[in-house]
Amino acid sequence: MSDIARSVTFYTEGLGFTFRHRWMPEGKLGLGADFCVMCDDAVAYYRQLQTNGLNPEETFVGNGLWVTRIDDPDGYRLFFESPTYVPEETKLSELQLA
Questions:
Q1: Cβ–Cβ < 8 Å for 91, 49
Q2: In 3-state terms, what secondary structure has residue 55?
Q3: Domain ranges of the chain
Q4: Buried b / exposed e across 1-35, counting CB within 10 Å, b at 16+?
Q5: What whole-number distance in Å separates Cα of residue 90 and Cα of residue 30?
Q6: In the prediction, which pLDDT does 22 show?
Q7: In a 3-state reduction of DSSP, which class is residue 89?
């Protein structure tokens, strides 16, 4: 069973989300899901997640988008994406070295 307090801390303090509505499950866990969120700047969000003490995967380009991935405490995959003209499969660290 998940630790709801840990998950709330992850989403609010780590990701910077706020609550609008709350729903409390009655003991059933979901089967899992991937979430894709379009944002203004996935690279800046990657850096902000690191500043918040989280460990996102290295940002890369896929399908013409910067993609920042992080898993929540229950293993759900979250993808934050923003458009780019950088070539496919480029990793952020490759650009920072140039």
A1: no
A2: coil
A3: 4-21+32-97
A4: eeeeeeeeebbeebbeeeeeeeeeeeeeeeeeeee
A5: 34
A6: 76
A7: coil
Sign of the Cα torsion 91, 67, 76, 7 reads positive
Amino acid at 73: P
Give tens-digit pLDDT for 36-75. 999 999 999 999 999 999 999 999 999 999 999 999 988 8
For residues 90 and 58, the answer to whether their CB atoms sit within 8 Å is: no
pLDDT score of 98 more than 50 = no
Cα separation, 57 vs 69, in Å, equals 5
Distance from C-alpha of 68 to C-alpha of 55, rounded to nearest angstrom: 11
Identify the bridge partners of residue 55 per DSSP, sorted by sequence position. Answer: none
Give the fold, CATH level 3, of 4-21+32-97: 2,3-Dihydroxybiphenyl 1,2-Dioxygenase; domain 1 (3.10.180)
